Amino acid sequence: DPTDPDGYFIVGVYSIGTPLGRRCLEQIGPDLAVITNEGVQSLSSVISLDRAAQDRGTITARIQPAINAASRITGNSFGWQLISYPKSTMALLNVPVGTGLFQQFVMNTLTGAWCRFTGQNGYCWALMDNNLYFGGAGIVCKADASGGDFGGVEFVANLRTAFSYYGNRGRKKRWPMVQPILDTNAIVTPSIGMDVDF
């Protein structure tokens, strides 16, 4: 009963990193995620792990160096926000990178893989009718609508796959052929490069 001041009890005290931004909380299923300077932490992992081990239990563990760098540079800036977007099976972490400039770290909620979106300078994000929207400087845009969400600008993507030793770490490899297989209904101009010394 919230009207009863004697109805509240402290059942535990837990330590987490410093929360970032005014929109640092997001419900994810039955859990609550908190954006902190140590990454995005779920409260269930905070309760079950010691503070020293929490970095392994963060939702952003795979991109921890990028989160740490961003929180050091713009941790006090407006715009930090986490939003779950079930329609496209992704969760977006909005990160300020400068005055009026933002990027999004985006996680595939099925695989846990991460990527980064740029060019969507959204101060805030929201869902309406299962569609994703972001608010910018005096505008509201529908995201994930086409190849040019923001002002009709052409969509440019840079993809880097996971690095691999191809089953034998110490041996030199040779790649005589590469074939991109793309499934799209748009006109694309692909180019391919290789990182052999990662």
Can you describe this structure?
- With 198 residues, the protein is mainly beta.
- The chain is built from two helices and ten strands; from the N terminus they run βββααβββββββ.
- It has helices at 43-48, 64-74; strands at residues 25-28, 31-36, 39-42, 81-85, 90-98, 101-108, 114-118, 124-128, 131-135, 140-142.
- The strands form three sheets. A four-stranded antiparallel β-sheet has the order 4-5-6-7, with helices on one face. Strands 1-2-3 form a three-stranded antiparallel β-sheet. A three-stranded antiparallel β-sheet has the order 8-9-10, with no helix packed on it.
- A hairpin with a 4-residue loop joins strand 4 (81-85) and strand 5.
- The protein is globular.
- The termini are far apart.
Biggest sheet record: 4 strands, antiparallel
* Beta content: 25-35%
Cα gyration radius (Å): 20 Å
Strand order of the largest sheet: 4-5-6-7
Quickly describe the structure:
With 198 residues, the chain is mostly beta strands. Helices cover 9% and strands 27% of the residues. It is globular, with a radius of gyration of 20 Å.
What are the defining features of this structure?
198 residues; 27% strand; three-stranded antiparallel beta sheet; 2 helices; mainly beta
Give the topology.
Blueprint: E1 25-28, E2 31-36, E3 39-42, H1 43-48, H2 64-74, E4 81-85, E5 90-98, E6 101-108, E7 114-118, E8 124-128, E9 131-135, E10 140-142
Antiparallel strand pairs: 1-2, 2-3, 4-5, 5-6, 6-7, 8-9, 9-10
